[in-house]
Amino acid sequence: MASEAAERHYSIDVGRMIDRVIEMPGHIRQAWEDAEAFSTSMPASPSRIVISGMGGSSIGGSILRDFAGRGRACDIHIERGYDLPSFAGTDTNVVCVSYSGNTEEVLGLFKEGLDRGCGVSVITSGGQLGAEAERAGVPAMIVPGGLAPRAALGYLFTPLLRAASRWGFVSMDTESLESGLGEASALIESCMPGADLAGNRALMLAKRLYGKIPLIYSGNGLLAGTAYRWKCQFNENSKSMAFCNIFPELGHNEVMAWECPERMREDLFLLMLCDGEDHPRVQKRMYTTYSLLEPLAGGAMRIESTGQDGPAGRLSRLLSTIVLGDLTSVYLAVEYGRDPTPIGKIEEIKEVLRSED
Ligand code: F6R
Predict the structure, then answer these.
(1) Which atom of ligand 1 lies closest to the CA of 97?
(2) 21, 99, 102: residue to mutate for ligand 1 pocket, most atoms within 8 A of CB
(3) Model-level pTM greater than 0.90?
(4) Which of 24, 98, 161, 251 is the most buried (most CB within 10 A)?
(5) Assign residue 307 a region: left if phi > 0, alpha if psi is -120 to 50, beta otherwise?
C-alpha cells in the first residue's frame, strides 16, 4: 500500500512527472538498443555536427557536447534558433530533434539543412518532422510518444550518444552505459515518493529551496548543460524563477551583482554544481567564489558530482547530477502545490504563432 507521503505527492503531481524521472534509466537502456540501426543509417564521420532543438528537445545536444568534452574530434554546435550557422555545408551533419515533431524552429532548420546539402537526420516521436523525414527519406529515430518532451530526455539524448560513439568522438559501449546508469539509479531509489526523508536528498533540497530563486552555477565543462537543465526544470516543473551561469566567465561580471541590496539577495539560493574534472583554475575559482557568496545568499549548497574517471564514470557524474535536479524540481513543484506537468504559457505562445500563419 502506498504510504501517506506518496499519496500526498501523487495528489499534486497528477501528471506523475516523478515517475518519468524514475523511468529515465529505462528510457536510456531502451533507446541505446533502438538507436543502433539509426546510428548506422546516419551519414558517416562528419567534420561538424549541428544539433537543432528547442527547450526539452535541445538539452540532449548540450549534454552530448559536454560529455564529448574538449578533446572531441568534431565540432558540435547546438542551434536553438531559426537559422543554420553559416558554416553548415556538405561536411556537416544536422540532427533535428523535436519530441513533438511540430516545433517550427526545428522544421525550418530541417528544410534549410536539406537545401544546403548537409547530412540531415531526425529524432522525434512523429508529428510533421516525422512525416517530412519519411518523405525526404532521411534517417529517423522514432521514439515512443505520449510524454512531456522534457521527460523524454533519455530517449532524445541516447541516440545522439550512440551516433557520436559510432563516429568515434565519444567512447561508449553497452557495458559502460550500464555502469554509467548505476549512480543515477541508486539516487532514484533513495528519492522515491514516500522514501525516508533523511535519505531523500532531492526532497530535502526542495524544502530548502521553497520561496527562493535558485541561481545555478557550474564550470564550463561536464556540467555546463546540466546547470541549464536544472534551470529549465525549475522553470517548467516547479513554476519557479531560476537562473544559471558558468565559470570562469561569471567571475568577471555576475559576481558583482551579489553586492545588491540585502532584500534582493535574501531570496537567492546559490547552487554550485561541481565536477572533479573542471579545469583546476575553475575549481579554485568556484571554491573561492562560494566562500565569498555563501554569507550573502539566502541559502547555498555545493553539489559534487559522483562517479569515477573514464567514460562510464563521466556518464555517471552527468546523469546522476541531472537526475538530482529533475527530482528536486518535481518535489519543489509539489511543495508549491503545483502539478509539474502542465506548461500553459508555452502552449499558449505556440498556439498564437500557429494561428497567425
Ligand atoms: C516541454 C518542454 C518544452 C519543449 C519545447 C519544444 O516539456 O520541455 O521546452 O521541449 O517547447 O517542443 P518539442 O520538444 O516538442 O520540439
Answers:
(1) 16
(2) 99
(3) yes
(4) 98
(5) left
